[in-house]
Amino acid sequence: MENDKLYQKCISYLKTLCEEIPERSVGSKGNRQATSFLNKELSALGWKTKVSELDVIDWEDGGATLQVADQSFNVLVSPYSLGCSVQAPLIGVSSLEKLERQDISGKILLLYGDIAKEQLMPKDFVFYNPEEHQKVIALLEQMQPAAIISATSRNAALAGGVYPFPLIEDGDFDIPSVYMTEEEGRKLLSCIGNPAMLQSRSTRIPARAYNVVARKGGNMDERIVISAHIDAKKGTPGAIDNATGIITLLLLAGLLKDYSGDRLLEIVAFNGEDYYGVPGQMDYIRKNQGHFKDIVLNINIDGAGYKEGKSAFSFFNLPEAMRALANDMLARFDGITEGIQWNQGDHSIFIQHGCPAIAVSSQWFIEHIDSQDITHTPKDNLDIVDCCKIVEIAEALTWLLRK
Ligand SMILES: [Zn+2]
Predict the structure, then answer these.
(1) Mean of all residue pLDDT scores within the chain
(2) Whole-angstrom distance, CA of residue 301 vs CA of residue 305
(3) CB 32 within 8 A of CB 44
(4) Could you identify which of 74, 317, 355, 372 might form a hypothetical disulfide with 295, taking C-beta atoms 3.0 to 4.6 angstroms apart as the criterion?
(5) What's the rounded Cα separation, in Å, for the pair 391 and 10?
């Protein structure tokens, strides 16, 4: 009976977040609707909420065209790129070594092959940024090509399940760029040296977004932080990534509405996990500088509730007593299993600051993180969610948090 009520709630939250609100990309109106909805629900459940405002940019994709000689090529605007209208000779580069040697200034630069195999991390992204990516970005900014075209394939681990993927997705990088499929790239290679004409109607729009933090019980010196990111990529309803995470927070908030334990419970909806500048995460880190030692545990939910397979709880540096409780929980809830450790989520922030953490996701997703074609695409919709799993996760976490 109680379960049935939770199940119905889960479905209604899912419809609100993924259908009534059409998109939740950072800076969009839908994103602000989602944070305001969450804030209201949490307050109504008796949690003390606080929002913090973030300066971000939204992005409007007006499409792009590329012409070389009499041929047109299919290109897509890189997210958050500046627009352009340029005519310049086309040059091609396939590796970092070649980039160092070629004179690319003022030309339209095609990046293909090895140098375009994985998405370049945004230049100001501090959590993970391979030296090779930083070198490529620095060289491009130094030599200033007129525009960049990248020919890419698939890179599920860094860019989600999209094909082709944008090599560059960075609102802090100011050389206009577009991207195309590998096949289109192979055709374009035969045009190297010819004058090319690239037009891209892409606009950056200053906007606002919000983090939502809600608290209950105890004192600040011993905090348990339960988090999920509320934003989604443009062009996806973001059901598994990560409406189900926010819904788990809401179900938990309801189940724990009478909580009055010694430890402070803090619910955090991060705004920006799927956005180049991770503004919500940066803001939270700034505000908690020096206080991460008070966080006794982070539980982060991302990618939970996929219809196939079990829910997966991955454990990071849990103290012995907590680990024993977690094992007890695994034994009580049939649909939950221990997951392998993975890093592409907001639990990493807490782990990097020395806090123990539990990452909650779907086993199928974390085991197919490099090959799945669902996240960040229209396929991540209501049809792939099993609400029974969300209810079970909320109940298991409530059990754990009450101990
Ligand atoms: Zn996510």
Answers:
(1) 95
(2) 10
(3) no
(4) 355
(5) 7
Residue 75 Cα to ligand 1 middle (Å)? 26
CATH superfamily of 2-58+207-402: Zn peptidases (3.40.630.10)
Render pLDDT for 35-84 as a digit per residue (tens, 0 to 9).
999 999 999 999 999 999 999 999 999 999 999 989 999 999 999 999 99
**Partners of 263 in the beta sheet?**
219
Give residue limits of the domains in the chain: 2-58+207-402, 70-193
Query: What is the predicted pLDDT for the residue at 373?
Result: 84
* pTM for the predicted model, two decimal places: 0.90
Name the pairing type of β-strands 263-270 and 219-229: parallel
Are 110 and 158 in contact by the 8 Å Cβ rule? The answer is: no
The arrangement of secondary structure in 70-193, i.e. its CATH architecture, is 3-Layer(bba) Sandwich (3.50)
What separation in Å is there between the alpha carbon of 72 and the centre of ligand 1? 36
What are the residues whose beta carbon lies below 5 Å from ligand 1 (ion)?
241-242, 302
Per-residue pLDDT of 204-223, as tens digits, reads 999 999 999 999 988 888 99
